[in-house]
Amino acid sequence: MNDLEASRRVILSGKGLTKYFGGLAALLNVDFELYEGEILGLIGPNGAGKTTLFHLVAGAYKPTRGRIEFRGEDITGLRPDVVCKKGIARTFQITRPFLEMTTLENVMVGSYFGSFARAPLRECQAKSEEILSLVGLQDRRDVPASQLTLVERKMLEFARALATQPSVLLLDEVIAGLNPTEILQVTELIKRIRQEGMTIFMIEHVMKAVMDVSDRVIVLHHGQKIADGDPEVVVANPEVIEAYLGGTMHAQAT
Ligand SMILES: Nc1ncnc2c1ncn2[C@@H]1O[C@H](COP(=O)(O)OP(=O)(O)O)[C@@H](O)[C@H]1O
Ligand SMILES: [Mg+2]
Question: What is the rounded distance in angstroms from the CA atom of residue 126 to the CA atom of residue 128?
């Protein structure tokens, strides 16, 4: 840990996180710490347990063992809506907007579920429009979500999460399937959101994007944490390279 990290506050942490599905340990004794204001990348091959870790944090699954703390409070096993109201929002690997609703309405639903709940409708709409501008969807506000392109849906997914007014944002492969220009658009947005004070924990498969945007990276392999640290150092770690099919990650990262 460097001096900067030591001086920062841990906002979210997991200790000994373990999740079994039948006999399979999707996660085994994973410890992690997320510092306030950082962008932490979570990487690892398919099936490594990345999404499972987010499910545990967000309350979609209860851990078999282990403990999750948010701002020093034990939040292990709390329901997803409770976790969300406390200030942890997530996007899903597979986007799932309400297709018949407009872009704006989808964002407004997000604001109803979050810590902004019970605000007057007009206030809620104004906030949602502001968020649509931030993600660049203001011109698409009245279009049904079913008519959005892939990148627009990803941006909507972002907007819905932001509408809950979180302090921590969990991003699950938000740039998967996008072209390089679109990836740049999303990574710029992530950096902008962080500048405004958000703490970001992001799962990503596209190595270059993770390297560009993350302050620190955690690597999972077969449910276990095999590396945690500076992106440049982690990507050169032989165990990490081995986990990614004998060096293809290194090629992708450069
Ligand atoms: N609901 C579930 N039931 C059974 N097995 C699951 C379930 N969710 C995930 N798994 C298994 O747990 C492992 C980790 O999955 P996941 O967390 O989705 O990996 P990643 O997101 O890193 O690709 C995989 O072997 C996957 O098949
Ligand atoms: Mg996943």
Answer: 5
Determine the Cα–Cα distance for residues 170 and 130; give it in Å rounded to an integer. 21
pLDDT tens-digit readout, 78-111: 999 999 999 999 988 777 888 999 999 999 987 7
3 state SS of 98 = coil
Pocket test for ligand 1, best of 17, 19, 21, 93 (most atoms within 8 A of CB): 21
Spacing, Cα 19 to ligand 1 middle (Å): 10
Looking up tokens 């969807």 gives 137
243: Cα separation from own chain's centroid: 22
What SS3 state is found at 178? coil
The span from the CA of 198 to the CA of 191, in Å, is: 9
**How many Å apart are CA 230 and CA 211, to the nearest integer?**
9
| Proportion of the chain above pLDDT 90, given as a percent | 70
**For range 22-40, the mean pLDDT:** 97
Q: State whether the beta carbon of 165 lies less than 6 angstroms from ligand 1.
A: no
Look up residue 68 and give its two tokens: 């999750």
pTM of this structure: 0.90
H helices present in the chain, as ranges? 3-6, 50-58, 80-86, 103-113, 121-134, 150-162, 180-195, 207-213, 231-235, 238-243, 248-253
Strands of 73-74's sheet in order across: 24-35, 10-21, 65-70, 73-74
218 lines ligand 1 (CB under 6 A): no
Domains of the chain in start order, with CATH, are 3-87+167-253 (3.40.50.300)
Which residues sit opposite 11 in a β-bridge? Answer: none
Q: Are 110 and 85 in contact (CB under 8 A)?
A: no
Secondary structure (3-state) at 107:
helix
